[in-house]
Amino acid sequence: MNPKQIACFILLAFVGVLTYTAQMIHKTVATTRAEAEDAETAAVTAENERSTAEIETAVFKEQTEEVRRFLRAWLPSIEHMQTQQEAEQTIELSLRERGINLVRSRKTEPKSSSGNKIIPKSIITTMTIEEEYAKVLNWLGDIERRLPTARMRVVQITGGSTSSQLKMDVSFETPIFDLAAADADKKKAAAAAAAAKPAKKS
Prior knowledge:
- The protein is rod-shaped.
- A hairpin with an 8-residue loop joins β1 (102-112) and β2 (121-132).
- The protein is 63% helix and 22% strand.
- The chain is an alpha+beta fold.
- It has helices at 3-63, 65-80, 84-97, 133-146, 179-201; strands at 102-112, 121-132, 151-159, 165-176.
- The chain folds into 2 domains: 1-63; 81-181, Ribosomal protein S6/Translation elongation factor EF1B (Alpha-Beta Plaits, 2-Layer Sandwich), CATH 3.30.70.60.
- The protein has a 4-stranded antiparallel beta sheet.
- Keywords: Coiled coil.
């Protein structure tokens, strides 16, 4: 090889190296740019999902405000009445404090509800009492105050043994709540939602 050929060979090799280097740099830049765009897209998607979740949460709170307010108001009564014994003690206390001395009959029986985990059973109380007019009506009002979740099934009032007395046949059903089951269902639903969320993204 003469000097000119050597010089041309070196020049061609140099140009080849420059071309290869430029291609590699271009490829690296393109890859980096694509990764940056993907990261930006992912960030925008995450922000949109967060905003959507916040909106859905706000809407849910607004739509359920009345229900949640109802539950807040009734929760103390629900927590207070979770066993048959508590229901019977409440009735006994009301009879004693309202001065109902003549209880002609009294029957308490449980009623199961296998399809309802939160209210697995209720207590049906059937009574016949006889007392002064005011005491009978005041006792009925006191029972409704002490057992606000109870449902009156029968209320029948007739004359008593004397002109100042009333005889009342009453039957009411008191639901027994299982708050532990409600909490378990809530946790189970939350866990299922959390487990389903990644699958939804993919």
